[in-house]
Protein: Prefoldin subunit
Amino acid sequence: MGDGAVDGDIQKAIIQLKNKTAASNQQKLLINAQIDALSKQIRRSELVTEEITSLPDGVNTYSSIGRMFIQKNVPDLVRDLSSQSEEYKRTIESLKKKLDYVSKGLADAQQGLRDLISAKQQKM
Structure:
């Protein structure tokens, strides 16, 4: 094997790493945007819960379902908001795991390239 083959292998690995880096960074941005959106929804649910629990007894409250509004009592609304928040938190946890997986895959690819380069340098 000549130097051209060594350089070709390294060039291929570098191109693959660049592609993987670009894809990983794009996935990271998308996941972070989803996490931010869900965090905002959790905060919104908390604020709405605070507001409706401070309402006096007997106040009519409504929940939107599509284009309709359904009358619900305050404890039911609080329970619904709480379950939504818990669902959002579970989704955030799974997104964080996915983010860790993407980061780990990128780090593994970078380490593989480093190993390839060091192995090729030792053969020279």
Q: What stands out?
A: The mean pLDDT is 89. The chain has two helices and two strands.
